[in-house]
TrEMBL record, chain A:
Designated name of the protein: ABC transporter permease
Membrane topology, record value: Multi-pass membrane protein
Entry-linked Pfam families: BPD_transp_2
This protein's UniProt keywords: Cell membrane, Membrane, Transmembrane, Transmembrane helix
Transmembrane segments: 12-33, 45-64, 71-89, 95-116, 123-142, 162-183, 218-240, 269-290, 296-313
Places the protein is found: Cell membrane
Stored PANTHER family: ABC TRANSPORTER PERMEASE PROTEIN YPHD-RELATED-RELATED (PTHR32196)
Superkingdom assignment: Bacteria
Keyword Transit peptide: no
Record-linked InterPro entries: ABC_transp_permease
Automatic annotation (TrEMBL), chain C:
GO terms assigned for molecular function: ATP binding
Domain ABC transporter stretches: 5-241, 252-498
Family affiliation: Belongs to the ABC transporter superfamily.
UniProt-listed InterPro entries: AAA+_ATPase, ABC_carbohydrate_import_ATPase, ABC_transporter-like_ATP-bd, ABC_transporter-like_CS, P-loop_NTPase
Lineage: Bacteria, Pseudomonadati, Pseudomonadota, Alphaproteobacteria, Hyphomicrobiales
Protein name, per record: Sugar ABC transporter ATP-binding protein
Amino acid sequence: MGAIAANPVLQRAIRVPPAYLVFAVLLITLWVTKPQLMNVNVMGIFIRQVAPLGILVLGQLLVMRVRSIDLSGAGVLLVVNYMISSGIMGDVPAIAYIAMALSVGLAVGLVNGYLVGRRRVSAVIATLAVTVILTGIIQFLASGKPPGDMPGYFNDIYNTKIWIVPTPVAFWLLLTVLMSLFLSRFVFGRFIAAIGENPTASHFSGVPVERTVIASHILASVIASVAALVQSASVAVGSIRLGLEMPIDAVAATILGGVIFGRGDGGVWGPFFGVMCFALLFVVMTSFGVPDPGKQIARGLIILLAAIFYGLSSSEK
Amino acid sequence: MATQSFKTYFGRNSRQGLWYVPLLITVVGAVILTVYTDDFASPQNLSNLLSQAMPLIIVAIGQMIVIVIGGMDLSVGAIISLTTALLALDAPAFVLVPAVFAITALIGLVNGYSIVKLNVHPIIATLSVQFIVVGFARILRPVAGGSVPDIVVSCVAGTVFGIPLTVFWAVIVLLLGWKLIHGSRYGLHLFAIGGGVSSGQEDAAHNFGISDQRNVILAYVCSALFAALAGFYIAGRISSGDPGVGETFALDSVTAVAIGGTQLSGGIGSLHGTLFGAILMVLLSNGMNLANLSAFLQGAIKGAILLLVVSLQSRKKMGL
Amino acid sequence: MSNLIEMSRITKAFGANVAVRDVSLELKSGSVHALMGENGAGKSTLMKILAGVHRPDSGEIYKDGEAVSFESPRHALDFGISTVFQELSLLPNLTIAENMFLGREPVNAIGAIDYRLMHKGTQKALGDLGLSLEPSTLVSELTIAERQFVEIAHGIKADAKIFILDEPTAALNAADVEILNEQIRRLKADGKAIVYISHRMDEIFEICDTVTVMKDGVHIATRPLSELTPESLIAMMVGRELETLFPEAGRAGDSALLEFTDFKLTQDSEPLSFTIKAGEIVALAGLEGQGQREIVRSAIGQFVPYRGTISVRNQTVTLPVAESSGVRSLKALGVGFVPEDRKEEGLLLSLSVSENIELGIHSSRSAILPAQRLRDTVKQTMESLGIKVAGPTAPVASLSGGNQQKVLLGRYLALDIDVLIIEEPTRGVDIGAKAEIYRLLRNLADSGKAILVLSRETVELIGLCDRINVVHDRTIVAEMPAKNASEHKILEAALRQYETENEL
């Protein structure tokens, strides 16, 4: 281990997010084995599938930079999905749905932020419990049955394209650029970087640590509600299945992208490629006929290996 | 002198957390149920209640062992599912049963090793292992079904001398848990490690000459084995394999342990607290069922209880 | 008398900081060996090497003439070396008895811990020290002095041949010290070797046979105590000329910038007050753990004092302040707090030099504002501090200790604050960088700022500061102009001899 610490080349190499390498490997695998899939239209559809995940990751990377985690995205997703597809809001314009989604995100974020930042509850437990509560309530309201159809115009927007780029992907890209600018050009980004590196030193430097952690959680949940809108648009029928897959995939993609509990080597684009890896991974696995459980194993392995990778490289310090 | 005897009484006991709170609530709840329902206190119903509570009690004991050292094991639910799936394979019991415990011990070893040697946060390590384990359970048994060996069923169901086997399970599991947690040097060392972690002096236990790394790995092996035991019990009850049967146990066991007065930051807790915590959880489900509450709403209420209990515990560290 | 243990030419460095350099020490059975030196002289590090906590970089340890090396504290204990450390290391959630026997608990027939035996053993060990504490009491419920006694009991109960007592009396009063001395004499009579670290002269002369003096990690002398007087011992501890390390003293202005008024650290401590004027550098000096750290940290909410007020210019803050906002509200008043532990509390090591300097400015602004480009400020700061680094984007971790400290100072320089509270300005910094940092601080003071310094290095305080406040037992016991101060005087004042001498 000491050899890694001593060698500057290796030290730099260990800070490159694994996402880029994994992405390249998956791309080559696909190119060699299924060349017929390598065209703009097909790839567009694949990437469009992960746009909600990609948006969710933007919030996840924020909280993981400040050494927290957010698994409440699943709950937000479910609530927004249900509110839109069940028709309990009546016949309202799209803007009302958007306002509803953002307020759900804001409310969940406030709860998470209070619990994690102020009450110092373990973030995993707190956000997981929030998801369990929201899921239970929604399933109860829906009496366990799928609620109903999504309004048509949602799906219509989802299926449009801007030039050759599917609209959801363009939207995801736009948000990623915005987040990248927010983190690199605003004081908030400096606070995030400082807290991730060392909360104690940040506190002594005058950074409002508690407030920044709370704000990150609020932002993450609001972003989750945006992801929920995109996700709702991608499906025709509402769903009430408890699905931790999305937030867990978001955690995995973020770690793959080089952002983990304080360390932000991958910035915003590392996790972006982490999500792209997932897009390709699902294609590769599906095309090789890997069943669902196999995907679950892959999911677990990716998180574990990425965490081990960072665990080892941070113990070098 | 009065303060001395007070200290004598509460000295070692105050390390055991607020275990009497769940006991009190359980007793009050039981009294209310006895008064307002016809057959709550009947031997039949109590025996049913115990067998409902048994799996959670077993898992919670294992969960408590890792929580005492300031860790957590979110893979226990997956291990339960895998155990039932393994036991429902088409093979003789004398192969299956040892294999189950060997495999689950290995899972615990992976958890412990990742945490101690590879520097992975316990929650992340056990969460990702959970996905891997559930994945394997689903490959072995995509949907609930199959049948477990008869010997497994007869180890769990039925009576001996007119006493339900569940009672024997309870006695054996509690003795085992007591021995590990309160009746051995190992148990005290777990508390020492947890006390060091929660008071910010991580090296303290090590400086006393305790081999903390080995003890921590062993704790995760213990929690995996207890989960396997719970899986064995469930397999015997449902006499089939079910890859989804353990799903709720990870969070439920954490809730039971937390209700039982064990501090999630480590170093404080007791076996009897965990026992009462688990019983209270099951009693609550029982009560909610009697009140005809929707199963979905019950899930939400359990989540709210977890949130309430953990937010009442104070912690210095922020984040994960 | 035979040599039980011999430490030969031990060297130990932490990073660039050499804590112990080429020190040898011989311990004889039936003798009490005092180890003396100022704070940070390397005594504790040397003893931690003997106790198996640290491994030496070079040098040998011989037991009965045979080379040994200790992998762990447990290993050292197996060799018969038992330690009572200065900082408390008891586990708060375990009982006294459990702490006493931790790692070697007796078990009964069924493998359970034999609490009866443990309680009996504990009661006896505590009884020997004249204590009647209940063995089943949790350590978290004990007072500091009681914990110290448990720690002592834990150390001397062991069936060891060598006992290391590292400032065991720090939390004890005179009567308690006598009880401890009784035990040390008993151990001595039993033929054990004892290393005794203390700052209290009377104790040293009462129970020790030999003394080894260390300074700056180096062995100064080893003498029988019968040849020494307290005065000659202090002279040995201090004994070096003031280097030409320090800038010329400045000229204090008229306006008071920082004032501590009617400040009581704890309910039963004496109140204290002091004022720092523009252009002044003022020190809080004293032995370890006398409360100086808590006094300054009360200002940022890290410690809750009993009462007191702080005035900056004419704005008054009533203590205690909230921990979460303490640093920020002080900064809003124009006070910068430079913490002692550069790596844990000060710098963001993997971030760049410029990010570290800019953070002070950024954190004074709202999070949703654009982060200003401060390239010029950073450049200016780096130039005026003479930070030697490849460029502003280099990670701070790659810098030397001196340059790291300058980056930390740069954060406050760039902020343009009025008052600087600084703990250990030159900890882990080489001599050249020390001189530069002293000059920087003096320049800051000359430009009309007020500086409060906390340091374990008395020489540094004398050379750097204008006035020195000596802290003892949570209050200021003496105040002297630095030009009249000497290490001797400060040490004596810190040892509570100063006042009596002045009265004579």
